[in-house]
Amino acid sequence: MNKKTIFIVLVLFVIQLLIAACASSANPPQAAESSAVETAAPAESESEESVAIEEATEDTTEEEPQATEEAEEEIIADESSPACMTQLEAMLNEEGESNIPDDAPEDLDEEYILVTYQVSGDEISAPKNESDIPEELIPYQQDAARHKELWEFYTKLIPAERRTIIGEFVIFSDGAYNVIGAVDEASTPGKWTLEMDAIDSLDVGMLSTTLVHEFAHMLTLDDTQIDDTASTCADYQTIDGCSKKDSYINDFYNAFWADIYDEWSATVMPGGEVNEDEVVNFYDKYPDQFVSDYAPTGPEEDIAESWIYFVFSEKPAGDTIAEQKILFFYNYPELVSLRQYTLNGICKYTE
Ligand SMILES: [Zn+2]
Question: What is the pLDDT of residue 197?
Fold first, then answer.
């Protein structure tokens, strides 16, 4: 096994990329590129975004007994619904606004696991708190109500049958604006852990895109897609094992990476980590091929980043390879349905 932790180290600017994508949805990658650096300003402390989550959490709790008709109505609100996309854009386009406190810890010396929850269906267990964490993280560890809101938010973005692989939900932190979230192998074989930074998740834009990004890893690297026991691999060898012939990531690789993989491989250091400076150079050479500057970290990250744009942007024209990567997912009706589910889930929080 030895499944690697797959981190998303996108920091704030990814959200700004997404905002740029939403703002000019016909051409997300180019818009993203131009706004990458200057929009990575520290966020201000405002309260609207998490209020949105709290309200929505209350709403859904209250709505559950009434069930069907209203829920079905929400599910059929499709991507052509301008109201839905406008609400989404408005939520994500709160430029500079965030609930991350100005005095939130940043740049901690390492990642600290704060709390572990066992996942069972829609529910999470009682918290299991870690000891020996920095004092400044204790308030974030103790906010179990907030953790429950985060989990409930996730359940509104991803349908239950797509969440059965998640065995654990972990709240961690390495301080604000560093690693935002991750997926990893759980202690139960065949299960995954979904991890969210307690501080970064206070920014609902960062939270939404990160949850969607991490979901894409599970979508493309779970046991239906990857054989991690194969001793040889005739198709794309992912960081988690050999991709199956008809898997999403193998199709993605063949469509977009086969020609550049050897050149990209030079960015990988002997230990298997990519050299970030080399990735930047690679991105600078092929900016039209990637939806963000994090995408060229490798095919696994590229497909997850492209998935973010697939979910949150309107359907692009396909003029660039980056746009074609977004269009890639439209080849799969089940993924188009998933996109719609996630959009509807998020749109509920913008109402
Ligand atoms: Zn990732």
Answer: 97
- Tell me how far the alpha carbon of residue 214 lies from the centroid of ligand 1, in angstroms: 6
Condensed to tens digits (0 to 9), the pLDDT of residues 87-109 reads 666 655 555 567 899 999 998 99
H-only helix segments in the chain: 11-23, 28-34, 48-63, 68-76, 82-92, 138-142, 144-157, 204-221, 248-256, 261-265, 276-285, 299-312, 321-328, 333-350
Q: From the CA of 116, how far away is ligand 1's center (Å)?
A: 20
C-alpha 341: how far from chain center:
15
Distance separating alpha carbons of residues 267 and 271, to the nearest angstrom: 11
Distance from residue 5's CA to the centre of ligand 1 (Å): 9
Left if phi > 0, otherwise alpha if psi is -120 to 50, otherwise beta: which for 71? alpha
* Cα dihedral 21, 154, 295, 230 sign: negative
CA of 270 to the centre of ligand 1 (A): 20
Give 181 Cα–ligand 1 centroid separation in angstroms. 8
104: Cβ–Cβ under 8 A, 6 or more apart, which residues? 175, 176, 199, 202
The answer, yes or no, to whether residue 72 has pLDDT greater than 80, is no
pLDDT of residue 348: 79
Identify the residue whose tokens are 């309200």.
Answer: 55
How do beta strands 112-120 and 123-124 pair?
antiparallel
Q: How far is the CA of 220 from the centre of ligand 1 (A)?
A: 11
Q: What percent of the chain has pLDDT over 70?
A: 72
Per-residue pLDDT of 241-279, as tens digits, reads 999 999 999 999 999 999 999 999 999 999 889 999 999
240 CA → ligand 1 middle, Å:
13
* Cα 126 from chain centre: 25
Check residues 182 and 82 and name the one with the higher pLDDT. 182
